[in-house]
From TrEMBL:
SUPFAM superfamilies in the record: RNI-like
One biological process term in Gene Ontology: negative regulation of cell differentiation
This protein's name: Leucine-rich repeat-containing protein 14
Family to which this protein belongs: Belongs to the PRAME family. LRRC14 subfamily.
Native source species: Pan paniscus (Pygmy chimpanzee)
Entry GO terms, CC: cytoplasm
Keywords assigned: Leucine-rich repeat, Repeat
Keyword Kinase: no
Length: 489
């Protein structure tokens, strides 16, 4: 039987392990090391949780950048992270910089692909850290616009003897809990650094946070670094950002915001918070870089114009899901300046059946020149509605994906849709509902049981027509039963 032996360690790895065997000597030895030994030494120290060595390495790091994302995914160790934070105590405006240190950016952000393929064990370990989220915004934004603008009140004069260190981290804040030791200590180090440490967060998710903890974090963050903000489910979370008395954390100060997602924010149009909501709208006018807006499970009911009129730069993506939209909302949207640039439109879980062919058809014609992704899941659309919508839909020449899940539409109507959309050369993905003749619909949602034989016949016919029309690269897929039932009822 063949025995698999582990690969032999390289000379650099052997040197790193030898040095770490006497951890107390690491700070002194680092003065003599060549810079090429620092990365393998850091990896070995992080993997084994050598706290003293990690602290010393951070304080003597000879490069401007220290990115820990891949190490965190491989070894999500609380002690290692804590040691890195402990190493930041030497960076202060009132203390001399550590000898030989060139560190100017410490990056805790995780790469989405690394997290996706890290394995079950690492995923479970990472789940214990509520503040880790892969950043998608960083890859989308040009480098020239990714950095924040300098503060207007920056004083010109003699250059400071020290240069601030940026700490990059994406935060996922959820639940009424005390801040864990790592995050609490990190905030303390930033607060006590007197400006030598800047906490920079590009993606921030807030959900049911204790107000005192949330306030502390927001006051410590460089708000002008935030590019993606999600506020989920708890009205007090967003009131913290929309409260005029809390001037230190005004929403308008997050002026580099590219994406804003609000879930369950019914407070905005309630009579008992009329003043905070008006202040919130005034803050929206300051978000000149906002391109993506997602509103979900909120009670708009004819009030969409209050939000859209505050955004003077056209949106590229607009998602308004389960917001009780009225025809006046769709009419306003179709006449707004946002239709000139809109690439993604999601109106899921809104009753649009009485807006066809009027307001909804007008809206589709208005966005036909730019629209690439259209989502109309569970919008109570039947055969007559879809047929009336086809002329406007077929004008969307750049459409690449279409979702019609959970709409009571027949197989015959779906085949008609296939035939009429063959002229949309960029359309490659269609998610269609389980046809009404293949299952039972209740309150506009497919509840099953599904007649698998009929569904298979429909799928075979769709594939046959795609082949005949030489559209083999176009994917037509049926939606899953109950996929959106929870949000629809």
């Amino acid at each position: 039987m063949e025995v698999n032996h582990p690969a032999p360690l390289s000379l650099l790895e052997l040197a790193a392990h030898s040095l770490l065997s006497n951890e107390a000597s690491v700070p002194l030895v680092l003065e003599q090391l060549t810079v090429n030994l620092f990365p393998p030494l850091l990896t070995a120290a992080f993997a084994k949780g050598h706290r003293k060595a990690l602290k010393a390495l951070v304080q003597a790091w000879p490069f401007r950048f220290l990115r820990l994302g891949s190490l965190i995914v491989q070894w999500p160790n609380q002690d290692s992270l804590q040691a890195v934070v402990d190493g930041l105590e030497a960076f202060s405006a009132h203390r001399a910089c550590p000898r030989k240190s060139e560190l100017r950016m410490l990056d805790f952000t995780l790469d989405s692909e690394q997290v996706l393929y890290c394995g079950k064990g690492a995923s479970e370990a990472l789940a214990k850290f509520p503040f880790w989220l892969p950043s998608a915004v960083k890859a989308e934004m040009p480098q020239a616009t990714a950095r924040p603008k300098p503060a207007k009140n920056t004083k010109k004069g003699r250059k400071q003897p020290w240069e601030a260190v940026e700490i990059h981290i994406d935060l996922f804040l959820r639940g009424f809990f005390k801040l864990d030791k790592f995050l609490s200590d990190l905030l303390t180090k930033v607060e006590q650094s007197h400006g030598a440490l800047h906490l920079c967060c590009r993606k921030l998710h807030i959900e049911k946070m204790a107000v005192d903890s949330l306030l502390r974090i927001l006051k410590t963050l460089r708000l002008d670094f935030i590019q993606e903000l999600e506020v989920f489910y708890w009205c007090r979370d967003f009131l913290v950002l929309a409260e005029p008395n809390l001037s230190a954390i005004q929403l308008g100060r997050i002026f580099n915001l590219r994406s804003l997602k609000l879930f369950y924010y019914k407070w905005a149009f309630s009579s008992w918070v009329r003043q905070p909501s008006s202040y919130f709208f005034s803050q929206l006018t300051m978000l000149g870089h906002l391109r993506k807006l997602h509103l979900s499970h909120s009670y708009l009911v004819g009030k969409l114009h209050y939000i859209l009129s505050c955004l003077w730069v056209p949106l590229h993506s607009l998602e308004i899901c389960n917001c009780k939209l009225l025809d006046t909302d769709i009419t306003y949207l179709s006449r707004s300046h946002h239709t000139t640039c809109l690439k993604k439109l999601d109106l899921s879980i809104n009753d649009l059946s009485y807006m066809i062919p009027g307001p909804l058809g007008t809206l589709l014609r208005a966005v036909s020149g730019t629209l690439q992704h259209l989502d109309l899941k569970h919008c109570w659309l039947k055969d007559a509605h879809l047929s009336a919508l086809l002329p406007a839909l077929c004008r969307c020449s750049h459409l690449s994906s279409l979702s019609l899940s959970d709409n009571p539409i027949s197989s015959a109507c779906l085949l008609s849709l296939l035939k009429h959309t063959m002229g949309l050369m960029e359309l490659k993905q269609v998610l269609y509902p389980i046809p009404v003749d293949c299952c039972i619909y209740l309150h506009g949602v497919c509840r099953g049981p599904v007649n698998e034989d009929k569904l298979c016949q429909l799928q075979a016919e769709i594939q046959k027509q795609l082949q005949a029309m030489q559209q083999a690269d176009m994917q037509w897929s049926p939606s899953t039963v109950f996929a959106y039932a929870a949000g629809a009822v």
